Amino acid sequence: MKFGRSWLPAHIFAWLYMVLLVVPLYYLLVSAFKTNDQIFGSPFSLPTSFSTTNFTESFSSAHLGPAILNSMLVTALALVLTLVLAIPAAFAIARTEGRLGALVERVFSLGFLVPTFAALFPTFLLAAATGLFHTRAFMVLFLPATAMPLSVVILVQFMRTIPREMEEAARMDGASTFAVLRHVYTPMCMPGIATILLLNFLTFWNEYLYSLVIIGPDPDLRTVQVALPTLKSLTGTDYGILTAGTVLTLVPVWVVYTVLQKRMQQALVSGAVKM
Amino acid sequence: MTMLSSAPGGASVRGPVTPPPSASVTKRRTQGGVILAVPALVWYLVFMVGPLVAIFVIAALHWPGMLQPVSFAGTGNISTVLDDPVFWDAVQNTAVQLVVAVPLMIVGAYMLGYYVAQKPPGHRVLRYLLFIPGLISTPAKAMVFYAVLSPDGLLNGALDKVGLGSLTDAWLASPSTALASLILLDVWSGIGFTAVLFAARLGSVPDEIGEAAQLDGAGHWRAMWRIHFPVIRDFVGVVTMLQFLWTLFGSAQNVLLLTQGGPGSSSTTLSFLVYQKAFIAADLGYSQTVGVVLFLVGLAGLLTIRRVFRQNY
């Protein structure tokens, strides 16, 4: 494709949007190293020093340390549980022909219609009824359920591409259903597993409203997304500390993105396509 | 929801390739079959379908507070909700939000995605940056915008710098700009991420299609809307549905973090009203009645969008 003169408006608009995108992020990053006076006085200038006081301050005043650990714990356990539930389910659907398999698959894809947000209050009641209100355990149990429709649908599509001869050969060698799942299907759909891991990592790590209501504001239990907004009121409005805290919560996701850039984009794209 | 589950594959994942079943194989493959799907199914029914059903049940209850006695309200909540001017403000705000944000996002993102997909100079940088808002959590985005839009934030600072100091405003605290600021945040973060989705899908459209159009003398504007757009039409439909749902259901978080629905009810959206009535006003029947409304609006929107974007050639 040639980029002649007629493309000029397109170049301009695309890069203009890029500026709109980057300026707030730049502001976020440089403000994290400044004091309030410097932020108001010269919002665009580079920081004069790379002192980390804002970071340590936000870390201690919002108790971000335990919050980051809580987020990691909830995210990791929920991810494991998601795989434990979704892999066998996808396996069963992919290899079951006929009406029952199709029905189960349909039930899962109807899950895209459930507005998880509107169900916040009933979910809160469920947490209270099971005695798991104000615990991280409930989130570990709950998050995989929300991830189930998309994870199952993506994994089913990967598993359907595995030739059935693979299973027949394994069966011939006397493999049980579980052995077929463990030694044939799981290794062969690693790309699909990576996709749902990345996709769900982002959703679980970034989850806010449910964590706010279910886990609650206890500094020892809350996740980093719940802890972050408290910086707004805790520090009055010290934008330096607020932005430093925000940067801290973005680091894990940003590191994963930069390392696995292509993979992550593919994961999110296929996630959206399957929805 | 056939369309939702059978949408065409993106750049990385192709659609399902199901070989035709043969009778003998079918029998063997069913062995040990669907039982493995039971745990996942149970999980999903308990944590997602159960609460969904509960929305409808609670909507029919008079439940004025967490520890208050519960009684059957019949259609009482519906008339309370319909008589409440705040509800109608929320309907209006949500309508404005959907009508402004979704088309702006889809058209902007499609054009940007098309641009990136043509691999112009610097497209790798573009792709990397465009994706970043998709990674940032709602609270983090809200904190960035809180810093940008606050009275002594970036935007007012910039306006002062360029001599437009008279235009400065307390953007999030003024009734005329609070909702607009929330919409701006949605569009700002939505366009880039959605553009990456479009770029990925357009990347899998065969090059020959674009080349043939060029030979026929189509300009790039024509190629973009008349050639490529129809090819990925159903994908546009899927993305529109997603953005519609995210905007409809997801706005509660931004509202809660940035304006709390205020000033007055100028930025109260339907999904925030569900939250506010349940967890702040403790009027649970009211809250879940709005939840039902939200569900129905979502469903109606999905069906409409699906019809509009149906392949029709």
From TrEMBL, chain A:
Segments traversing the membrane: 12-33, 67-94, 106-132, 138-159, 239-260
InterPro entries from the UniProt entry: MetI-like, MetI-like_sf
Main location as per UniProt: membrane
Domain ABC transmembrane type-1: from-to ranges: 68-260
Membrane-protein topology: Multi-pass membrane protein
Alphabetized SUPFAM superfamilies for the sequence: MetI-like
Subcellular location: Cell membrane
Keywords: Cell membrane, Membrane, Transmembrane, Transmembrane helix, Transport
Gene3D superfamilies: MetI-like
UniProt key word Chaperone: no
Family (UniProt): Belongs to the binding-protein-dependent transport system permease family.
Record-given protein name: Carbohydrate ABC transporter permease
Source organism (scientific name): Streptomyces glycanivorans
UniProtKB/TrEMBL annotation, chain B:
UniProt name for this protein: Sugar ABC transporter permease
Membrane topology of the entry: Multi-pass membrane protein
Chain spans, region Disordered: 1-26
Stretches assigned to the ABC transmembrane type-1 domain: 91-305
Cell membrane as UniProt keyword: yes
PANTHER family associated with the record: BLL4140 PROTEIN, DIACETYLCHITOBIOSE UPTAKE SYSTEM PERMEASE PROTEIN DASB
Segments crossing the lipid bilayer: 34-61, 95-116, 128-149, 178-200, 231-249, 285-305
Keywords: Cell membrane, Membrane, Transmembrane, Transmembrane helix, Transport
A Pfam family that the UniProt record links to this protein: BPD_transp_1
Family of the protein in this entry: Belongs to the binding-protein-dependent transport system permease family.
Cellular compartment(s): Cell membrane
Top-rank taxon: Bacteria
